[in-house]
Amino acid sequence: ELDEKAMEEIRDAFVKSAKIVEMSEFDGIELHGAHGYLLQEFMSPALNRREDKYGGSIENMLRFPQEVIDAIREEVSIPVGIRLSLYEDDPDGYPPEHGMKIVENLKNIDYVHFSSGRFAPPGASASYYSEHNHIISKIPRKPGLTTIGVGSITSAEDVENALKHVDLVALGRAALADPFFPENIKRNRKVRPCIRCNQACRNLAFGEVRCTVNPMTGNETLKTHARLTGRVKIAGAGISGLEAAIFLAQKGMDVTIIEKSNRIGGQINEIREERKRNEFLTLIEYYESRIRELGITLILNKKADMRFIDLFMGTGKEYPDIVREDEIYIDSNIYKHLDQALDLAKDSKVFMTERSLDSMDRHRQMEYRKIAESSGIEFVKERDGRFKTSWYERNQYDIYQASKRGLWAAMKYVRENY
Questions:
Q1: How far is 325 from 185, CA to CA, in rounded Å?
Q2: On the CB side of 320, how many CA atoms lie within 13 Å of its CA?
Q3: Is residue 207 predicted with pLDDT exceeding 90?
Q4: Which of 189, 201, 280, 367 would staple 184 via disulfide (CB 3.0–4.6 Å)?
């Protein structure tokens, strides 16, 4: 436990930081009282085991956070809010009602920003296994101060539903997918949707921000040509071809896409897991809207004559299907194989290695495991002689790789021809 001298030093550090913020001409300060950070540790019954004046009752648990707030307010004049976990997802976590008690007992704050979670998933970044507005929908009542809500808000409809419960909406992943999210909603245009895959944006080991559905996120400094003229024909309306087409059309070119099948989207159309499929198909809807807005000519059910094609995108890398047998042994982190395993388990006994789940973030792992085990799939710790084949790629070909491939191909075409 922190002694009171250490707590005083921490309060002083908060105040010093707040003064720097104000001198730097920021508009306000948001204290982090969520996600297992120090202020939440005091407010969480599961973590605060103190028996002094800083533990026990709700008033005591809030004493240190309140001291920090009051000390800051004495030194700065800009607004001060706090981000709080409305509830904790951990087995011993507190419910939304406790979160509301925190809000209604804190004083001297201008607003509260509702998030969720302590250490256990999903927290604010729920995957497609959770409902949209998964945090805001659990707010028991509206407190008597300004409120901000976050969590699984990816569309205009989500925003409208959220604003029935809170005053303002915060965007995280959705802003990585579409940095013009608010403007597109104002103009009644489809946003590039966050599909809540928790892939590139959660890959924190690389120390950089990326987005599975937006190859420009994190690559904003790439130099691209200004307005272009001319015609370009692209073969393939998978993710790569669509990204290439949109990039070139935005630059002013007359773009035609020729696709041999009867629909766009490539391998996304093969997804069978229901919740994943429903979420990922919103990306196809976005591409359809952009094709219309940009005046791209789309020709379906036609095999392209390669003599007249400027960019051939094809289907990109394709992974083999898992062969159906009475007993199936899967050692693969490939998303396609994880999807197929659920179908195969309907008629076969399926064994899967633990490491097969490594490519998914913690929430997807947790929810996939529940579905898999309820389907009869058995997980084993180590791969043994029964596992004849292994597909394991640290940087597997996925939506991000496909979209980046299309963007890079379009840029290369411009460099070589203009």
A1: 49
A2: 9
A3: no
A4: 189
Task: Return the pLDDT at 225.
Answer: 67
Rg (alpha carbons) of the chain, rounded to whole number? 25
pLDDT of residue 314: 79
Rounded to 10 deg, the angle between the 274-294 and 239-250 helix axes is 30
Q: How far is CA 61 from CA 6, 14, 210, 272, in A?
A: 17, 18, 38, 47
CA 365 to chain centre: 15
CB 256 within 8 Å of CB 283: no
Contact between 236 and 405 (Cβ < 8 Å): no
Q: Give mean pLDDT, residues 68-90.
A: 97
Strand partners, 303: none
**pTM of the complete model:** 0.91
Residue carrying the six token digits 């805001």: 136
Question: Which whole-number Å values give the CA distances from 317 to 86, 271, 321, 349, in the listed order?
Answer: 43, 16, 13, 28
Sort residue 384 into left (φ over 0), alpha (ψ -120 to 50) or beta: beta
State both tokens at 310.
């400027």
Provide the CA 418 distance to its chain's centre, in angstroms.
36
CB 96 within 8 A of CB 45: no
Transcribe 158-202 into DSSP letters.
HHHHHTTT-SEE--SHHHHH-TTHHHHHHTT----------SGGG
DSSP H or E stretch at residue 331:
strand 327-332
18: Cβ–Cβ under 8 A, 6 or more apart, which residues?
A: 29, 72, 75, 76, 80
| Distance between CA atoms of residues 111 and 81, nearest Å | 5
Q: What is the pLDDT of residues 122-151, one digit of tens each?
A: 999 999 999 999 999 999 999 999 999 999
- Cβ atoms of 145 and 80 closer than 8 Å: no
Place of tokens 């890398």: 317
Find residue 147's DSSP bridge partners. Answer: 112
CA distance 114 to 93: 16
330 pairs with which residues across the strands? Answer: 352
How far is Cα 178 from Cα 41, in angstroms, rounded to an integer? 34
- For 245, counting Cβ atoms within 10 Å of its Cβ (0-12 exposed, 13-18 middle, 19+ buried), the class is buried
The per-residue DSSP string of 195-216 comes to ----SGGG-GGGSS---TT-TT
Taking a C-beta distance cutoff of 8 angstroms, is the pair 149, 166 a contact? yes
For the chain, what is the mean pLDDT?
Answer: 95
